[in-house]
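fyi for ur records
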Amino acid sequence: MAKLILIVDDSASLRRVVNLALSAAGYEVIEAEDGLDGLSKLDQLAGKKVHLIISDVNMPRMDGIEFVTQLKQKVAFKFTPVIMLTTEGDDEVKAAGRTAGAKAWIIKPFNPPQMLNAVSKLILP
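which gave:
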């Protein structure tokens, strides 16, 4: 059974690129356009295991740091690994991401093999 990954990013083109790379590697992918949409999609998945979340930081309505903070308060997702995929390289923002619960930080533009390598390290077999 394919491992399920949620992509949270306000850029439809970036979601498409990440989705294609992950799908080609055999993962099942769900997309959300911002943090609020991400939380909503996770609520709709009742009972399905999400193996990993990839989230942008800068998004309208709810940014990635707030999304991860709220995500980690949900018992079902407390231990779900999160990769931040963002243009944001500031140390303070990275520290806030780590504090919120992000496990990895990838700066855009990214190369798909680098992202897939990080994904494979964080998703348990």
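The chain has one domain: 4-122. thats all i got for now
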